[in-house]
Structures are given as structure tokens and as C-alpha cells.
Amino acid sequence: MRYCLLLLSLLASLRPYAQDFVPPLGIPLRLTGNFGELRNNHFHAGLDIATDQTTGLPVYACAEGYVSRIVVGPNGYGKALYLTHPNGLTTVYGHLEAYGEGIAQYVRAQQYEREQFELDLALAPNTLLITKGQVVAKSGNTGASAGPHLHFEVRRGDTPLNPLACGFTIADSRPPELSHLYAYPYWDGFPAQAPKSYALTKVGTRWQPAGGVIRVPGRRAGLALYAWDRQDGRENRNGVYRMEMLLDGKPHFRFQMDSLPYAKRRYLNAHLDYRLNMESQRKVHRLFKLPGNGLGIYSFLPGEGLLELGPGVSHEVEIRVYDYSGNLTTVAFRVQSDSLGKPSPKPYQSEVAWADGTTFEADGIRMELAEGSLYEDLYLNYGQEKGSGWSDKYRLGDSYTPIHREATISIRANKVPERYRDKALVVNVDDAGRRKTLGGTWVDGYMQTKSDKLGEFYVMIDSVAPVVNSVNLKAGQWVGPKARLSFKISDNLSGIKSYRGEIDGHWVLFEYEPKNSLLYHDLEGTLEPGRHVLVLLIKDERGNSTERRIAFTR
Prior knowledge:
By secondary structure, this protein is mainly beta.
């Protein structure tokens, strides 16, 4: 009874606005992503609504209010709109193709006044008023979007809420799906061990591992489940809404995706098994809480969700997995202690307690981790490889160990000549061989930077200017009055920092799409017929620049 009352209280706290909002699109809502879904380094903060691989659908204001923020950028949500409503909530519409009438004119005026494409504007309440159901934008595919869709959020302050509490109609009669259970053995004062996986099969109405029993060594064990959900008419995998684990018939662990403060979204890397995700792309839900996990979505946590084991100990476990529509999938099995002894730990150079910050220093490198950077104790391996490049190569742990706060990395770079110091930067290579440039500044003979990953680090030089190639404009070409002038731009190492376009000495609006390496300008009908000169100036993060001049006629 207490459990039911708590659940009803939680749902009631989220539903005062359920009758206030109309859907943001005028088509049946089908999801390519839902709230709380496990993404890379963050929980998904809203709904991704399918637009049938098209752009340009009208996007409606869910309620009356005003435009409180406008963001225009090449990454993230691309073109995004924030509407604040009388009930104190804010709705967010992302990856837009264009803004609605009035809003579009305001944005364009701001871009030309500031002479920049990218904007992040906070608006006063009386600047742009909105009515319920007003067309405020067109759906698109801008920013870090993998395909056309509308990203939609509901926020209270800086905390995203589950938009499904608005009462939108989304057909879903399919229960959550799952495939594997994972068991993590724990010993006191011993590095965490790799989990053992158990394939799950359906027996009657429930799922279970083979034989209905798993055996786990160690004094304690943590469990995790690989599970997902699908809505009717969609085959993509979305996230689950709630999981709860009963131990010997009593509540032992639960999480529920109702709200996720933005400041805590990176704790996803403690909620899932980060290493397993990086190695196999399996995003599993832990059913126990790591000591450095600061999320507030959990309840019923005797022993932080861990199972106490020992000789002759046996537990009955039931895991219930729900989607937001109430469809249920159940896993049931027994856990027994295993007689296997404690394994030998792998060698490591430094141990860092999860609650502590640390400074690790070796020949030519220093790493600083602030307090709150770790989810569990870190057993750090270190390696150094003498190189013929601009610095030695240093290995600090591996990139499959998650850190919550960026580490400060300092590398001695005395091989870099004075003339190249402004071109130097730090590079991180992860365990899959992917290279990421981290920039950096000179501090007392070291190149210093921040990194959100461990792994391999070294110094490189970027003295190569960006590459600019015209897609559809040649010197002397005649173009129509409203043609699109497109260019492909790229950089070999540090990345594109800035771009500027002028026609006849006047700034013009170029939009940048990094995912397509595309920079483009839509000619205005006000451009006079005759000869014109386009000038593009592209700079990378290390100050290398490329200028292109092309004369054309209109």
C-alpha cells in the first residue's frame, strides 16, 4: 500500500499541466527517442518525434506564453526555440529548419546586427508573445541530428520533466524487451571485477537465465539488465520508464524516469556500465548505485542495491520493467554464492578513492582530478612511450573508465620550437583508436588542457590551413536571384573555429553544418544585378586561415 501511494504521489506531482498542452506536431506522435533514454554521456532530456524523414512540418506552441530563449548554432539542438508558459513550465523545440513568422525576422535582424550566424538570446517576456497552437517553427534536421525529427522538451527551471506526463496520445501496447542479465562480483578492498553475462529466455510469462539460477563469487553482487522498449508502429529501440527489483519478495531497488536535472545528466555514466557500452554498445541499467553516483532517481536502496552473499546464501530476485504506458516485462531467478575464490588483481600504479581528488605526476606529465570526478575507486595504470614527435606519448588508465569532471592534463613539450608554440595542441586517443584534439595553453613549459576521458595523450602541431571547396559556384558564373551558394570546409586537426562571408565588402549570413562539412548562403532577392565579389575567410582553432575570393554575376 505504501508503495502504491508513493507511486500515485509521484505521478500526481507531474500532471498538473497534462490538460494544458496541445501536441507540438499535427501528425500522430511516434517516437524515435523518449525521455530518460540512455545516450552517450547523457540521458535524453525529451522526446524525439518522427517526421517521416521529411522537414518543414509546422511546429505548434503547446500553450500560450512568450519566447524566452532562441539558440542558433551548428551543433547541439541546431536551431532551437524556448517558450515559457504561465504555469511556469518551459517547452523546448530543437533541430528546427526555420522559425515562424515574426520570430524569423527577429532572429535575422539579430544575426545581421551582430554579424554572426550563431546566437544564444535571452528574451524579455514582452518581446515575442505566443498563442496556444501558433505555428512557431518548421521541423528540421539542424545541429547534432542524425535525421529529420523534432526534439521536444518540457522543463521546470533547469530540470527537464518527462513530456509523456502531458497526456499526449502515443500508441504503445508492446511491453519492454530484454536480452541479458549481468552480475558484478564485489570483494572488500578489491578492484571492481568484470561482470558475467547471462542470456535470458522467456519461460511462461516471465524471463529467466538458463536453469533459473545464477552463481556469483564475492561477498556482494550487483545486477544489471539490458532492456529497451518499442512503441506501436516503430522498430527503433527507446528507453524504459521504470525498473524495480524485489529481493526475497521485498523492494530492494527502483528507478523511475520522471525528471532529470541538466546538471546531473552526465551521471548516466554511473547509471549504466560505461565500459560495456564503449566496448559493445550495450547500454545496460545498473540495479545498484555506485558510490559516486549523484542521481536522485533511485529509491528502496538497502545496501545501495547490492546483494549480500556468502556460503549457503541464496536470494530470490524479481525484476519488473515498465514502459510509460504501463506495459510490464518480468525477470525472475535465484542468486547463489559461488565457491570461487578472490581472483588476483591486475597490476596498477596508483589507487584513488572515489571520494577524493588526486594529482598523479610522472616524468613529463601531470594529471589532476578534482573531487567528485569518480564514481568508484580508480586503479590507475600508467605508461610512457618515447616518441620522435613533439612529445612522448603517455597512457593514463584507459578511455573505458568514466570520469565525471574533466581532468586537467599537462604535458611537457620542450621539443616544440618557439615558432610553433601557438600551433601546439594536446591530442587524446581512446582505446578504439579514435583521435580527439583538446587544444591547450602553455603553462610553465607544459601544454595544459582539459579532457573528459582518460587514455593516451601527446602533443601535436597544427600549421595547416583549412580547406575550402566550392560546391556550386565557379568564377564568373551567373547565379539566380535566390540561389544557394554552398562550400565544403574542413580542417586536418584542430577543427574549424570561425567563418565569415562578405559580398562586395558587406557581411552576409552563412550557415554552417559541421556534420556535412557544409557552409552555405542563400542569396537575397535584393542583391542588384551585375558583377559581385564573394569573400570567404575560414580559421581553425590554431589560427591557420584560408581566404577564397570568387567573382560572380547576378
